[in-house]
Amino acid sequence: MALAKEKIYEPLNEDSAVVLVKDLGLFEKEILLECEEIGDGNLNLVFRIADRLNNKSVIIKQALPYAKVVGESWPLTLQRAQIEADALKIYHQHTPNLVPKVHYTNNDLAVTIMEDLSHLKITRSGLIEGESYPLLSGHIGEFLAKSLFYTSDYYLTPPAKKALAKKFYNPELCKITEDLVFTDPFFNSETNEFEEELTDDVQKLWNDLVLKLEAAKLKKSFLTEGEALIHGDLHTGSIFSSNEETKVIDPEFAFFGPIGFDIGQFFANLLFQIISDTGKEKIILDHISNTWNSFQTIYSDLWLSESHEKYTRVEGYLDYVLKKCLQDAIGFAGCELIRRTIGLAHVQDLDGIPSFDKRLQAKRNSLSLGREMIVHRADFQEISGFIDYLRTFQF
Ligand code: SR1
Ligand code: MG
Question: Which ligand sits closest to the CA of 339?
Answer without folding.
Answer: 1
